[in-house]
Amino acid sequence: MSNVKTYQNYINGAFVDSARGELRDNYNPATGALLSRAPESGAEDVQRAVEAARAAQKEWAKKPAIERAGYLHTLADRIRGEVDHLAAIIVAEQGKVRALAETEVNFTADYLDYMAEWARRIEGEIIESDRPNENIFLFRKPLGVIAGILPWNFPFFLIARKMAPALVTGNTIVIKPSEETPDNCFEFTKLLDGIDLPKGVFNVISGGGKTTGSALSGHRDVDMISFTGSVATGSAIMHNAADHITKVNLELGGKAPAIVLDDADLDLAVRAIKDSRVINNGQVCNCAERVYVQRGVAEAFQQKMAEAMQATTYGDPGADASVDMGPLINQAGLDKVAAMVDSARQAGADVLTGGRVADVSQGYHYEPTVLGNCTADMAVMKDEIFGPVLPIQIVEDLDEAIALANDSDYGLTSSIYTRSLTQAMKAVRELEYGETYVNRENFEAMQGFHAGTGKSGIGGADGKHGLYEYTRTHVAYIET
Ligand code: NAD
User: Fold this and answer.
1) What is the number of structural domains in the chain?
2) What are the catalytic residues (predicted)?
3) Is 210 exposed, middle or buried (0-12, 13-18, 19+ CB in 10 A)?
4) Interval 255-265: pLDDT, tens
């Protein structure tokens, strides 16, 4: 009997076939095995999902926030009961290693609980008036219907990052998972289907970007598009949104600089930056993508980093749970990484370790790679690589490092390794980034605010500020 699953969209509280009847195949990136078929939804499906979300929204918003939060807590408990199953799905369709897949599932449950806990803390304001006998009240109200469009790299967690703040503040949502990773989204939805959430509050339609995604982001009755993905798609979505003046919240790509100064704890810097390049097979928007190392420690740093990357193991994480790294998501991802390394090599970069497509029979594996002697004009120092490749450029001092770091289209995360508080604070002041990590790996906390400047995005996620992205303000001037 075939293990290949066939999924249906989830609209108005029921699993339903796509109106077009078309299905898209979904494969395991490590083995090439066919995993599932999921709907390739069209404009009709988008219409039905948005209509269902709109019809449900007013009643949903009337419920006390604490009642809405109760559903999120129940879902979190159900997710915690299914970690094994859910982690296996993520490993199979995205190629994440098992331990990280389990972390993603548990973090998702914690995130649902965290956002649910805001239910009693959604606050308006009372503002002093210029007139006697008047009060100015500022209310926080839901936006209405949210479209959540997701990438494939944290496919399970990112559902919660959008639906939890949306639902607790009284919005309803239509989610479109990446065409690379529909399975985990529909498994999430199966768990959600059992918690008696009112019909239409949460909907899922799967399909490709240019078909389903484009129809959803261009729909006139969506109040905010909450998108995570590449800069190019973010730009296409903004164009679509412009037709109906739809609000956008965009979490886009990054090219995170890591600065390593002469006085850094070198072993700490090597460990944290290496982990940053290896985690999720090098495919994380906020992880260190380029290093500026001060000349005094450059040789030692490069040598230690090359050794650490060389010791990184890779393979099919579904067959061997002990590997450090799985495959890249698809052939296009692998080709892009290979082309960027080849171009850097031709321009004079030294390949300190790796530098080739891995010699394995199956899967989109690239060797863990360190490139020394890089210069600012190389694509590996400018563009998002999204693979296990670390380019390094030598600098004379912090000023040069900051200038190079800031000379970028991106502005998501940055990091610095130094024992000097003065140097660290100078970097925090001068780096034009949404986040700076000092002497630690780049990984955001749910109570922080994950947001980029420049082409890395608009708006943000997490914490109080992320929650309020899903609300609008309504001011009442009340004279009595
Ligand atoms: P992508 O932009 O190719 O696709 C993301 C989603 O957009 C998919 O669901 C896709 O189907 C959809 N899409 C594509 N074209 C569309 C269109 N014209 N209209 C509407 N939707 C469309 O990104 P990806 O390859 O899935 O993800 C990798 C990218 O995501 C990287 O650039 C990474 O840095 C970024 N990312 C950013 C963050 C963050 O928090 N800033 C987090 C994770 C990933």
Assistant:
1) 2
2) 251
3) exposed
4) 999 999 999 99
